[in-house]
Design goal:
alpha+beta; 4-stranded mixed beta sheet; 9 helices; 14 strands
Length: 377
């Protein structure tokens, strides 16, 4: 029986997502195998912590647990952080997380809960019970500059995870061929028992709910179909990506056990604020100081663009402070291929702090003119 995930993380049943995450990260740092080499109790505690977090961070799994308890995950379809994973988070820096939607869906949770209460299978047939565990989804995050977001870039991720065993091709058998159906459960993964008037379905004790009987296990993976290895992924971040966007690489998560589908890999992208440009959708805004003489009489100014070019921009006479000058096509790449947002020059003026006697005289004469008395200067 799995331990109460709330007790494992030391949080109340009404704890917020932030409190759960905070408790999880604190315990992970304390019991991480890298900090407790050779300590089997710490390794088991680390597995329990990941298992508990896997349930409580997912709204559907948490709701199922709150309603059904352990019965919500009968048959092995619940959270199993650390199982088959060597007992540790593969990312020592703590930036990597697991299972962003992988594993059991809500239908699977309800199906297993109904099994536990004696109602049998529904909606999916017996073959659903023999389904091996899908690989975990993996999540990483990266922070890039606005210029990288403009051009697009590549993020290299180095980590370790379960991958398909090359020796048995993921089947878990010594000869590398798919194992035959379990004779006890007929390949369903479940056996039927009775307790009084109630018919019960429980995981098959011969195949542990897998539905296949492996007589001679693969010497490389021990019958799981997966091995733990270091990996490197090159994730292409497209030009024009938005802050907070999530990229998905299908099938690049952890390998599933005994030939089950692999999980997916996700990358959350954050874009740092830029000192020169403010991003507004696909447009960019740059605040630039322009001499008040140029604003009054008109002229041209030179401005920088996000791709490190210089542009000459006309300033109409009479331009006011706070107005925006529009430069088409020099913003961020937009979702439409070959399309770009615009660059807006937000007009500002810098008042000189030191004037020569000649400059003071000219400005005084100007202030005494009719237009000056109207408050232009």
């Amino acid at each position: 029986m799995n331990k109460n995930p709330y007790e494992v993380l030391g949080v109340a049943r009404d704890a917020s997502d932030a409190d759960i995450k905070k408790a999880y990260h604190k315990l992970v740092m304390q019991y991480h195998p890298d900090k407790n080499p050779g300590d089997k109790s710490a390794e088991e505690k680390f597995k329990e912590i990941n298992n508990a977090f896997d349930i409580l961070k997912d709204p559907q799994k948490r709701a199922a647990y709150d309603r059904f308890g352990d019965a919500a995950f009968a048959g092995g379809n619940g959270a199993s952080a650390g199982a088959g994973f060597g007992g540790g988070n593969p990312f020592g820096n703590g930036a990597f997380h697991f299972d962003m939607g992988g594993g059991a869906g809500m239908d699977d949770i309800l199906r297993e809960a109904m099994r536990g209460f004696g109602f049998g299978d529904f909606g999916g047939g017996a073959a659903r019970g023999a389904q091996a565990a899908r690989g975990r989804d993996l999540l990483d995050e990266v922070t890039i500059s606005l210029q990288d977001a403009y051009f697009g870039t590549t993020h290299t991720v180095k980590f370790s995870s379960n991958v398909e065993c090359e020796k048995c091709h993921g089947n878990g058998t010594d000869d590398g061929k798919p194992a035959p159906a379990c004779p006890k459960c007929g390949g369903t993964g479940y056996v039927h028992t009775r307790q009084g008037f109630f018919a019960m379905e429980t995981p098959c004790p011969e195949c542990n709910g897998l539905g296949r009987k492996i007589d001679k296990k693969c010497s490389e993976c021990g019958g799981t179909g997966t091995v733990h290895k270091s990996r490197t992924l090159e994730v292409k971040i497209p030009a024009g990506i938005d802050d907070g966007a999530r990229l998905r690489l299908a099938g690049q998560g952890e390998a599933g056990q005994n030939g089950a589908p692999a999980g997916d890999f996700y990358l959350d992208v954050h874009v740092k604020p830029d000192a020169r440009f403010e991003r507004v959708g696909a447009d960019l805004v740059s605040r630039i100081d322009i001499p008040f003489t140029t604003l009054a009489m008109g002229g041209e100014i030179e401005v920088d663009t996000i791709d490190d070019k210089k542009l000459s921009v006309k300033v109409p006479s009479g331009t006011q402070v706070g107005e925006k000058l529009r430069v088409r096509g020099h913003g961020m790449p937009s979702r439409r291929a070959g399309s770009f947002g615009d660059l807006y020059i937000l007009v500002n003026v810098q008042i000189p702090t030191k004037l020569t006697e000649k400059q003071k005289k000219i400005l005084t004469e100007f202030a005494e003119t009719k237009s000056g008395k109207k408050g232009w200067f």
